[in-house]
Amino acid sequence: MAIKVLLVDDEKEFVAHLAERLQFRGLEVETASDGESALQCIKDKAPEVMVLDLQMPGISGIDTLKSAKAIAPELQVIMLTGYGTIETAKEGKEFGALEYLIKPCDIIKLYTLIEEAVGK
Amino acid sequence: MTYTDDQLRRRSLEFSGRITASLSHEINNVMAIINELSGLLDDFTFAAENGRPIDLERQKTTVRKITAQIYRGREYIQQLNSFAHMMDSKNQELDLARCAEQISFVCQRFARNRKVGLGLGPSGGALAVQGHSFELLHLMFRLVVLAMDVSVPDSQITLQVGMQNEEICITVTGDTVLDENEAFSKENAALTGIVEKLGAEVRSSLSSGKTIHLIAALPKDTWPLSTV
Predict the structure, then answer these.
(1) Of the residues A88, B28, B163, B200, which has the maximum number of CB atoms within 10 A of its CB?
(2) How high is the ipTM of this complex?
């Protein structure tokens, strides 16, 4: 069974290409461009891992993380961050995020982290 | 140095920090997209090496997308460089319409984060003023931020410069649910320093019950000799 991943980022082109690369590696990928649609996707599609950008319009990444964990406590969250939000990413680990990566990130590193997140 | 000078200095640093952080964030996003696109090309090559047919059209499209992102990144770098040079700008004749274009460009990310649109109003063409570009941009930024703070989501904010009743004015309009006094008191502290520094006069009004107009009239000493 393919690992189900949700990618959340407001940079639509970035998320589309990253999704394609993860699909190329055999993952099942859903995408969302803001916190609200990410939370809806968690309810509808029950992903195992969420890769979450921290700076988005509307609900912030950290608030999305908190709500996501309330909806699906077993969901594993990997945060993606620019340099300006590293402190927020560290804070995210206190709210249950597994790890954070700095954009641009290495696909092998992300893929490995996703596999580790679901214990594969 | 008076308290007001110190406060203005801190506000100016905060303004410059927010702009440079925003532009560098955008540049980083461009780098991230290029990283994924070049990675896709790598994936296509790997697939071809393992016997999958090469999709030349897909490869060409991906290369074109990389080129587009490089041009996008170049625009952000140009804006960042231009902004950096403004900080030590001298008092000189400037095009206020060009300043409005720059603020509109560098504030797009802030607008997206607030879920509002930001655009320029109809331009009357170049509008010469005398002053420091950094200070004029700071004033425009504070007006735009104030408009964003009081605007409803999914509404449009418009920045416009031009002559109104024989005054050179910077006008920002947006849709608000607040009344005029509530709206205008939101960010006065941040706005006041730069308004006083420039000797500008700021006023606000509501029209149609929901559209707030924030107007900064520049003093006559910012008018160049060619305008007076």
Answers:
(1) B200
(2) 0.92
